[in-house]
Amino acid sequence: MKCPLITAGFYADPGSSGMEPLNCFKEECALWDVSWKRCSFLTATKALDGLVGILQDMLEKMPHAGQFTK
């Protein structure tokens, strides 16, 4: 099933895309996330963004090579 929001590129960057969202089928769409009541692409994007933030924090806290050697 094709989603009109994906073809419009709305979820690539909904804040600054300047595009108006097309009609969303919501519960009728196969891509609808019932638990969060939004498109599953947006749910996946938010989850990946959170993981990237966690990985960046881990990278900053990792000791540098040779930091604990004598």
Overview of the structural elements:
- Helix content is 37%, strand content 6%.
- A two-stranded antiparallel ribbon has the order 1-2.
- The chain is built from 2 helices and 2 strands.
- The chain has a domain at 4-14 and 24-60.
- The chain has helices at residues 4-7, 40-61, and strands spanning 32-33, 38-39.
- With 70 residues, the chain is mainly α.
- The chain starts with a helix and ends in a 9-residue tail after the last helix.
SSE topology:
Layout: H1 4-7, E1 32-33, E2 38-39, H2 40-61
Antiparallel strand pairs: 1-2
List keywords for this structure.
70 residues, two-stranded antiparallel sheet, 2 helices, 37% helix, rod-shaped
Distance between the termini: 61 Å
Low-confidence stretches: none
Helical run tally:
2
Structural category is: mainly alpha
Order of helices and strands: HEEH
- Strand percent estimate: 5-15%
Number of strands: 2
Q: Name the shape in a single word.
A: rod-shaped
Rg on CA atoms, Å: 19 Å
Residue share in helices?
25-40%
Average pLDDT figure: 77
The main β sheet shows up as: 2 strands, antiparallel
Give me the side-by-side strand order of the main sheet: 1-2
